[in-house]
């Protein structure tokens, strides 16, 4: 079958274009898993600033698209007006579809307006994979940190933040339009299945787990020798709802109890807005005094090395679906404390594989970390649970086989739907 992917990153096509393949590691992993099968002729649409010329690489046909609003000046103007891409590139999407002539289309994620193709290709089934969900994230955007209001909203940094939020909110409205017209969605958690009942009421839902970057499958955490200092690790990004302020609040409580620890944060640096806002809201001037260390961007190898040398992985976001960082920590087999939000309630299955805590609750989070420090047997038990759960859930061969079955089911249903009603929603 001919399947055309739409993705936010070039996947393995980045190798051909001499681009870094550090971003989008999960989709590269899925590509490689699917490449083991001879059942799929894969096409791949993505945005490219380098070329608009189709090319083939490692058995995949790539159809790069250059955005119409691609100049820096236009992007700055759009940002100022809180404008986001809508259907400016729809004709290019449809041209790529016409060129490849797929049996079905698989859109990875709802962050870009790829799903606007659905009303224009009635003879081709289109499935959208739920990665995150902008609609729900927009509701949780200001969790943990206050929303600037009144005159405070006019201050330069707050003004830029509100513009960022409004653009985020505008993209969420496009997401809602795409999902409302969807007939098929793929997800992997109870959370995304349930929100799709509301946002994609006409769609059949299919469970599809995620392949993780291959480096994480081959390493295993072992309990560290007893030490006077406990090490914690969190991987984050510069998004307002990622819960960095909870790390500060928790570190204050742990310091007040005389607990000796270091809390390393991968993915953040001191100049980023999330860090600065969190520090300002808590009147903190020096993170080192709280034993918090910002590591900035780390390579895969450096993240794994850091994981193997940490005592507990800590997830503090106020909303997530199935964050790759949590899945990676589970694959390594780390003891984990995680905020019980969104899709993480499926990832850790009612406490199996992690200690769950309410997001933003620094008291419970500090208590959970102390609990694992005081009970190393429990920490090891959680780590073993996480390892077993993750290796079963993220098995690349099973995921690829299940995805092929889903493609076949969707194609068959779409053909049948021309003479009958849509199949009922699948359950997890």
Tags for this model:
428 residues, 8-stranded mixed beta sheet, 6-stranded parallel beta sheet, 15 helices, disordered C terminus
pLDDT averaged residue by residue: 92
Rg over C-alpha atoms, rounded to the nearest angstrom = 22 Å
Instruction: Report the sheet with the most strands, covering strand number, pairing sense and barrel closure.
Output: 8 strands, mixed
User: What spatial form do the alpha-carbon principal axes imply?
Assistant: globular
N-C termini distance: 25 Å
Strand line-up across the major sheet: 3-4-2-1-5-6-7-8
List low-confidence stretches.
Answer: 421-428
Order of helices and strands: EHHEEEHHEEHHEHEEHEHEHEHEHEHHH
Instruction: Report the structural category.
Output: alpha/beta
Q: Beta-sheet strand percentage?
A: 15-25%
Secondary structure tally, helices: 15
> How many individual β-strands?
14
Residues in helix, %: 40-55%
